[in-house]
Amino acid sequence: MMLMKNLSNKRILLGVTGGIAAYKSAELVRRLRDQGAEVRVVMTRGACEFITPLTMQALSGRAVHTELLDHASESGMGHIELARWSDIVLVAPASANFIARLAHGLADDLLSTLCLATTAPVVIAPAMNQQMWTNSATQENIETLGRRSIKIIGPAEGAQACGEIGPGRMLEPEQLLQETAQIFSTGLLTDLKLTVTAGPTREAIDPVRYITNHSSGRMGYAVARAAVEAGASVTLISGPVAIDPPHRVRHISVDTADQMRDAVMLDIADSDIFIAAAAVADYRCADVAEQKIKKNSDDLNLVLQKTPDILAEVARLSRAPFTVGFAAETENLLVNAQLKLKNKNLDMIAANLVGEGLGFNVDENALQIFWVVGNQTQGNQILGNQTLEKAPKERLARQLIQIIANCYYEKKSAQENTIQENTTQVH
Ligand code: C5P
């Protein structure tokens, strides 16, 4: 099957343990990168007997990590940073010994420590002699791992390097690739349509100058990508940014707040969810100068007027979709965010602090999310909330999409119950 580049921007930590199947991991690194993933390789001592770190370094384009307490790597990207960096930890091949150590929670080398320290999903592709695989010790360990939500992919049956035939062969790189991509596609938003805004807007002062802000568009683009992975059909309406649009989204480029508003209104009628991640300029020039303004005086006064509040307008629609706003604040984050949720009549708001190294134009972010529980009327709002700790925007976006999907369905079922109650009363 032909795969789209569906691992774009995914950070995959590939753990390689000692087994003859380690040679297939070299091909796997190449295939994962072809699909857009960033790959870092961690090898156990056993793995280094089968394949050299140099091979994996050349293929991954990154230094290979082998030691837990190596001064050079701990001061570069140490084990905790590696654990945090990963969107997924894929161990392929996973030997019987490694599986046993993982099942018992050992942390006596870099890879086993990482598996304990990460919050990312851990996936293992077992590879071993068929007797070792069917041995009840291994099977019990596999059961233990399954109970801990570690995903086990394979092994396949067939001829083995040791000359025996049976279960224990590691899956082929192509299958591992598909299984890995599968983990990122949740199906949470299947059959739903989303409209997402992202990036800054630009409001002209004269033909060469404009008012804008520091938004890079990364959060909105990550949200759009996560929504596609969750099965939604997505329109991404974006101000000017320097990043490529995700695959499989309908991408509309705009410059100004007015253009963004018009594009949203054209798209919104059949949308189920609206996510306003754009940093829309709040003001534009009342009159845009037709010619470049000359610097003839020491002061220059510009008269500004408010731009349309796109989010509030969408939330006011009679058949409004589930509306999610962002609140980027430099102070009083929680109070301001909750006020915005209420005043704009939103279903949910994602609040983040912006300033030095936070929020805009950086890779990581932290979000505090508030939402209206159930189908409450305004003025009597009950709030749910969740904090998403500082993490790469890609991961935050996936977590946010999960929360949005839960609340969307909760609201929908509350609405259906209300309709049912009203119909019963009429009868
Ligand atoms: O009121 P404030 O600009 O802080 O609200 C932020 C939220 O409102 C963001 O979700 C932003 O995308 C949206 N917004 C909008 N149109 C505007 C201003 C903000 O959609 N003109």
Explain what this protein looks like in three dimensions:
The structure is a single chain. The chain has 2 domains: 2-183, Rossmann fold (3-Layer(aba) Sandwich), CATH 3.40.50.1950; 193-418, CoaB-like (Rossmann fold), CATH 3.40.50. The chain has helices at residues 22-34, 45-50, 53-60, 71-75, 79-85, 96-103, 110-117, 130-134, 136-147, 173-184, 218-229, 257-267, 310-316, 333-343, 393-426, and strands spanning 11-16, 38-43, 88-94, 122-126, 151-152, 156-159, 165-169, 193-198, 203-204, 210-211, 233-238, 250-253, 273-276, 283-285, 304-306, 322-329, 348-353, 364-372, 383-392. It contains 15 helices and 19 strands. With 427 residues, the chain is of the alpha/beta class. Cytidine-5'-monophosphate is lined by residues 197, 257, 276, 278, 280, 282, 307-311, 325-327, 340.
Keywords:
binds cytidine-5'-monophosphate, 2 domains, alpha/beta, globular, 427 residues, Rossmann fold, five-stranded parallel sheet
